[in-house]
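Quick one: structure tokens for this chain, please?
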Amino acid sequence: MTSADARAEEIQVKRFNRWGDWATYHAGSYWVRGKDGRIYHLGPERDGGWEPATVLEIAPPFRLSRRIDARRIEPRGCGGEPRVCHWRLRDAVETRYELYGGPGGTITERRLAVLDERFPESPADLQLRSGRPRQLSWRQLREQTERRAHLGQPVREWELALWERAAHPVTVVPAALAGLGLILWRARRRRRLPLAGAVALGIGLSMALWAVSIIVHAASLSGGLPTWSAGLGPPLFACAVAAFTFWRA
């Protein structure tokens, strides 16, 4: 599903110049905050590695001390105590920025066909799954939420998707009770409710639930409401409708 969705949006970008969510989900590169002031900019994942890759090392308080640009970065195994992973960077350009040697410091650069480095980050720490949150399974969604929070990536949309995914089964029961309460209430007032009227009430209730879910989703995504409100909003609205209609009936 994820690859088909990405292909469809790629066609919209190249043929119709309509970007949509391409830059957000399918751009193919992303930033990852590592340990010890290290920042990664990784391209698409291919054969267990990433192409291309840039590694930035930030010295305190906030100064770029080293930069590595490589055509490809790939893991070579992890182990030891403390845990250290070996990485291989191919066609690498290493640039060091020193503070001594002149008013602006000195810059040294070297080019290597293969550069072996030891970083504390594991391949799992750098792996982020592409695609919209709603396209992922429950297990993948939880893993990606935790991984993005650990790497300093935005997680609000993923937390929102978790709450909404958990609330969908819960909403069924109060929504069914709300529909039954509406039918009983209208049937008591008119003494007879035709089939078309029952269908219209069901469609109206569905539209109201959809409107509530869209409103709380937008408010939660923008930061106006906590993420849990997007999951609890529709079932609470259905419970309120059910309680009111049964009381009136």
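The beta strands are 30-33, 38-42, 45-46, 49-50, 53-59, 63-70, 72-79, 84-98, 106-119.
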